Amino acid sequence: MMDMHIDSIIELNNGISIPRLGLGMYQTPDGSAARHAVSYALEVGYRHIDTAMMYGNEASVGQAVRESGLPREDIFVTTKLWNDDHGYDEAIIACHLSLEALDLEYIDLYLIHWPVAGKRGDSWRALEDVYEEGLCRAIGVSNYMTWHLDELLAACRVKPAVNQVEFSPFLYLVDLLERCRREEIILEAYSPLTKGKKLDDERLKVIAAELGRSPAQVLIRWALQHDLVVIPKSARPEHILANADVFDFSLSTEQMSQLNDLNEDLRTSWDPSKQN
């Protein structure tokens, strides 16, 4: 587990591989900002880009991927089904629209962005069909709590490969992590840096100082050492580079335990625990 590097991968339950570190594209404006962020990330070694229809930057992500000069199969692209597009027919259409916006031959990972009540079952059937059609190499979910997984696993014919949720030492969802592990579903951490809200936490800063690293780097490394996929978001080159500089140090068992104890159920965005 300690021997990782920027292009380290985890095998999903359908046999394909996902890079452990990715670039999150939430709130990165479409156009030059998004293109430059993706281009720079790919230049410095990232091979995993996470976008969504709701982010509004799929076109720029796809353009940067196409113009990178890298083989398509070397870059892992995730996008997501937005809430307004739930339902069987609607989800099929939305997947095709995302592919059209990205202008790529396939999506590596297509996720249900949010567990919309009453419709998510039909949406999952649509994802199973686009997966079996070959439009997506893997399918999964986002913001699913254990009860959402219970419902899905009782009815699905294709098990989700990934569950992408907000996850950090300050939102340490142990039960959800253990459930995903039992089901061979990879847990992927978004907002691992708490959107900056906890980077000044004194307990975190002490550990960062011990290691000669930034608090952000410690948070990313913590997620990696929990065997997660982690997608820190940034559009600034210096942060994109720093967020990838986490593979030449490790957290001790004691430091991991100290970070685990920081949990305070901090959610920096939506709260899926209140979604039936």
Secondary-structure topology with pairs:
Blueprint (H helix, E strand, L loop, with lengths): L8 E3 L5 E3 L3 E2 L7 H12 L4 E3 L7 H10 L8 E6 L6 H15 L4 E6 L7 H14 L2 E7 L3 H10 L6 E5 L7 H9 L3 E5 L11 H10 L3 H11 L3 E2 L6 H8 L8 H8 L16
Parallel strand pairs: 3-4, 4-5, 5-6, 6-7, 7-8, 8-9, 9-10
Antiparallel strand pairs: 1-2
Helix pairs in contact: 1-2, 2-3, 3-4, 7-8
Walk me through what this model shows.
- This protein is an alpha/beta fold and about 280 residues long.
- The protein has a domain at about 10-195 and about 230-235: NADP-dependent oxidoreductase domain (TIM Barrel).
- Helix content is about 40%, strand content about 15%.
- The protein contains ten helices and ten strands.
- It has helices spanning about 30-45, 60-65, 90-100, 120-135, 145-155, 175-180, 200-210, 215-225, 235-245, 255-260; strands at about 10, 15-20, 25, 50, 75-80, 105-110, 135-140, 160-165, 185-190, 230.
- The strands form two sheets. An eight-stranded parallel beta sheet has the order 3-4-5-6-7-8-9-10.
- Helix 7 (about 200-210) crosses helix 8 (about 215-225).
- The N and C termini lie far apart (about 35 Å).
- The mean pLDDT is about 95.
Question: Short summary of the structure?
Answer:
The protein has 276 residues and is an alpha/beta fold.
Average pLDDT, all residues: 97
The share of residues in extended strands comes to 15-25%
Enumerate the spans where pLDDT stays under 50 for 5 or more consecutive residues: none
Q: Please name the fourth-level CATH homologous superfamily of the domain at 11-195 and 228-233.
A: NADP-dependent oxidoreductase domain
CATH class of the domain at 11-195 and 228-233: Alpha Beta
Count the helices. How many? 10
Q: Termini separation (Å)?
A: 36 Å
**Amount of helix:** 25-40%
Structural class: alpha/beta
Radius of gyration, CA atoms, in whole angstroms? 18 Å
- Give the SSE order as H and E letters: EEEHEHEHEHEHEHEHHEHH
CATH topology type of the domain at 11-195 and 228-233: TIM Barrel
CATH-defined architecture of the domain at 11-195 and 228-233: Alpha-Beta Barrel
Strand arrangement across the biggest beta sheet: 3-4-5-6-7-8-9-10
Number of strands: 10
What summary fits the major beta sheet?
A: 8 strands, parallel
Shape: globular
